[in-house]
Amino acid sequence: MSRVVQQDRTTISDLECALFSGGVPFIVAFFDRLGPKEICQLSKTNRRMLSVCRFYVLMRWDVLGLVSRFFVEEEKALALFTAENAILFGPAVVKFFDRAKKIHFALDVCVNVETLERIVAFLESEGFKYVSNSAKGNTFRAEIAGEIARTPVEELKSSGERNSSEINRSPWGPYDFVREPHSTFRRLRLHVVRCEPYRYILSLYSTGLMNFIGWGCAVSLFPNSTFCHRRSYVSRQECTSEASFSSSFHTWFEDYAAARGISIVEYGYKVFKGVEKGERYIGDGHCWVIPDRYCDPEALIKVSNGPYFEVLDWRSGTTRADSYLRIGEPGVWSANSPSELIICGNPTCLISNREQSLRRCGGCGCKSYCGKECQVADWPVHKIACREVAPRLPKSPWTQAVLKYNAEFGSRAASYGLGLAFGACTFDLMRPPTEVEWRRLWSRIACCVELRLDEKVIEGDVKSYKVTYHRAYAAKVEDELPSTRVLKYRRNVALRDWPVGLLYKVVSPPDGIVETVTSVTRPLRSSDVLAPVFYIANMAASGGALEGTFGER
After folding, report:
1. 423: which DSSP letter?
2. What is the pTM of this model?
3. What is the rounded CA–CA span in Å between residue 22 and residue 16?
4. What DSSP designation does 227 have?
5. Domain of residue 514, residue span
6. Chain segment 84-102, per-residue pLDDT in tens
7. Is residue 441 one of the residues assigned to a domain?
8. Residues ≥6 apart with Cβ < 8 Å to 415
């Protein structure tokens, strides 16, 4: 019998013998001393070591285990946060990735203001209570209503793009929610933003802070730099006064980095290797993605392509004076994942924009819905922002005239714009473009229809407006639209089949001052997709059919 055991042991390495004989405490202590890369390399030696490494990973990086420290119904909490695009971040998540043994910190939750009501209702059902920091002792809903009332309309609708001010991406709060008055371990800090929560994560001070839990997984955007090379690169873009949490989060990380051997790298003439640069997207090969549960331990983890962004170092000449990196504007979602195609304002809607066109809210124009049912379902949440925004929205008196022109001549303008766009590019005119080539073209080029605005005083202050066709030309989207609207235009292009982009630019004579620019994306039927030479040949007929005049009154 001893001889059989001796023969079996010859097929097992000394390291495996030590791990198997040492038990769970020894395995945990051994792997705690290894870095993430070493653990991955060790898992590739054989199936036995793969099983041991998986056991350690499941125990040490347990997303549900972390969330269960703060919520009774952790699975329901994660499902809600995923549905509402809320993100968990902060010191607790940083220490989770870095395998810190004690995570005695509040959990920070970043959520958009328009999906706030469902999050707060869930927190209240979990027994959390809002702790007011103001002397008046306002309720949480009163605090948010006050912030909405004090915020200008253009900042309330902030998309969080990189070309906007970083102040517009900063959150309101944090707002403290606790279960017990003196408990810090079961405490939440709610950060309310006006942009998508992931955009706020991308605007944090340095790359070591860019770790979050959301969309059914935990994601570290710069794991190789932070947890392998132990470097955090400063990527701040503006000299702005930081909010209380951003400042304290940065201060905490400086102390934490010093204690854990992480260097914070600012601007310098040294070039570091292994920096996750270039064209990136959330969930790419540079990211460290940990799913909230492993349904099949033997299956590979596949993550849908998330928002795209570009990372540049100081050699690009675009970084701030004290920053090593610059993170560019996030792009649109990949069309490979069905969940990202849903852009209806109702989060529970399952109809993609490919199947039905969307209609804007008539009050504020900030959200779009695929039908009346979705608007009614979302109204209990949306009404808070809508009632504050709608009365303050500037109304262009000639808007209806532009819409009438689009209704009458929109299809002709799209036909003429096809010839303009393909005539300005370098496509093979004899070959129909692929859908990828088509989207790439119309994400950069649009058909700009210039309308001349004529104003006439009827009586007193009552004025009459009409718009008249002046000219049409192919234009770069960035040259015609402000940066805060380029992303919305490209999102509409990405979510439609064979899209054609139109820009209606209203100018007032005699100086041609631009009053408004209205963007419209019209889908083309697949049967109408032809070689570009046919669109160019049709320009002579369709161009003369664009002339017309429409009045507001």
Report:
1. H
2. 0.58
3. 10
4. I
5. 399-551
6. 889 999 999 999 999 887 6
7. yes
8. 535, 538, 542
